[in-house]
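Justification of computing resources. Each target in the renewal requires a structure prediction run like the one illustrated here; the chain below, 294 residues long, is used simply to show the kind of job we budget for.
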Amino acid sequence: MTHPTDFPRDPNRPALPTHLRTALRLAGLGLPVLPLREGKLPFGNCRTCTRSACGDRPHMKAAGPCECPAPCHGWAAATTDPDILTSPAWSGAWRQAAAVAYHPGGGGYTVVDLDNADAVAWARQELPATKTVTTTRGEHWIYLGTMPSHNDVRPGVDIKSAWSYARWLGPGTGRMALLPDVVRALAVKESPAAAPAPSNLVMHLRPGDAVCRHRSPAYLERGIAMAEQRITEAASAVHTTVYRTFLAVLSAHGWCGCLTENHIIRLFTAAHAKGESLRHCEIAWTNARTKLGM
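Resulting structure tokens:
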């Protein structure tokens, strides 16, 4: 994550709000952003989307249409589209904004949010060094790669990645490292049951297939590892390889319900390392499910 450069100003146009200018710089780097109000909270739902009637995922294909133009969907409002960020529907939010947030998972990142000095001391002893950003009470440690977001994985430690947002506090210092297994293990250790997957990643059972047909848990693990290797070793046609790999995984393991969100994130992370965006991964996954009639 490099420090964004300033856009040239047009003296004939009114100056943009400071937070909007920051958001546009980040969006130009491919980082999905949204405005935050006081208290580090997203702007509230509009009448159309009261109580999350829209599904809170307007950018995900399977969430259904949402006609609301305002930034009222929490983390899922994050976007890299400058036309949306500067649209009249968002102007009021930027005038009132107290900060800028970004969607780490949408940019391909995971943020380990260390909320106090004890948590920071623990991270310095237990986690691989990576890019760090100073916060009001601790630090954000940012890794390249995505995983499910989890709160309170240990005292003073939250994980913010997919389906979450983090406050932008500057470019930080240090060199970003790949997301390590020790961070993934925090979520597994503290949350044995995988969190429910987003609506477009949910596995549906075929009638009569409620009993797992896998010979052992190791069989599924080998299948996921082989899929990761196939994506990683792709020398060309990465889009096609990712789609066909997702199709193969779903065909072999997608009917009995054994695939968890952690398995899916592992596949998405492998694809992202080859240059695929989160959105492209979601499309490939959805298309593979459609192909199989899931």
